[in-house]
Amino acid sequence: AQSVAQPEDQVNVAEGNPLTVKCTYSVSGNPYLFWYVQYPNRGLQFLLKYITGDNLVKGSYGFEAEFNKSQTSFHLKKPSALVSDSALYFCAVQHGSSNTGKLIFGQGTTLQVKP
Amino acid sequence: GAVVSQHPSWVICKSGTSVKIECRSLDFQATTMFWYRQFPKQSLMLMATSNEGSKATYEQGVEKDKFLINHASLTLSTLTVTSAHPEDSSFYICSARMGFWTDTQYFGPGTRLTVL
Questions:
Q1: Low-confidence residues of chain B, pLDDT below 70?
Q2: Count of CA atoms in the C-beta half-sphere (13 A) of B112
Q3: Which of A18, A102, A105, B25 is the most buried (most CB within 10 A)?
Q4: Helices (H), strands (E): how many in chain B?
Q5: B106/A46 CB distance under 8 A
């Protein structure tokens, strides 16, 4: 069965410091991996995705993620956090050989950036 | 680009009534739309997949007669919660994608439903 795990319910970081939000996945075949961010009472905003190619993917708002096949991970990173980055972050996986487009979401990680 | 809207953004209704939520792709044609439900501080749960011109595919455990989905055009899908009850109160979010395979899903802002 496909699954996504975000092991941390909350990540706290000081403004200006680097941040990492962790994600591991389990899927047969090639995974398509996504990161989304959700602000309170809002829908999800797309940040970035990995389909194929370079393991380091750059996305919106200075975020990037590194695909690590051996560790089945797709951690979200940013070199210098902003207070405005504080939000709920979701990692999601889609089965690579499926055209249904179904996404399996992780449970979400709340990022708190303190001034 | 790739903007998805939902209407209404919030709705309060009485138990036993029906509520319709609209999901529109504003600047692209969506071959597929998805409907999710999200409980407070929880992840998104996929309810159904909707392809234009065909019947929706519901996830296991989702009552298709209670959550009616219509995908009438390439830019509009509707979710109707029939005979709503307080336990149907939730945040409903739709998403849309342009094509198949690797296309990204773009999400609407969500609709907060409260059933009294």
A1: 1, 100-102
A2: 7
A3: B25
A4: 0, 11
A5: yes
Strand partners, A68: A73
Task: Quick: pLDDT tens for A59-72.
Answer: 999 999 999 999 99
User: Which of B49, B100, B109 shows the shortest C-beta gap to A43?
Assistant: B109
- Asked whether residue A97 carries a pLDDT value surpassing 70, the answer given is no
Torsion sign (Cα): A110, B1, B2, B3: positive
Distance from CA of A43 to the nearest CA of B (A): 4
Task: Give the whole-angstrom CA distance, residue A107 versus residue A105.
Answer: 6
Distance from CA of A45 to the nearest CA of B (A): 7
- For tokens 């990173």, name the residue: A77
Q: Amino acid identity of A3?
A: S
Asked if pLDDT for residue A99 goes beyond 70, the answer is no
Q: Which of A59, A103, A104 is nearest to A85 (CA)?
A: A59
Q: State residue B63's pLDDT score.
A: 93
Q: How many CB pairs under 8 A join A and B?
A: 57
Q: What is the pLDDT of residues B49-82, one digit of tens each?
A: 988 888 899 999 999 999 999 988 889 999 999 9
8 A C-beta contact, residue A97 and residue A31: no
Chain B residues close to A36, C-beta within 8 Å: 107
Do the Cβ atoms of A101 and B49 come within 8 Å? yes
Length of chain B: 116
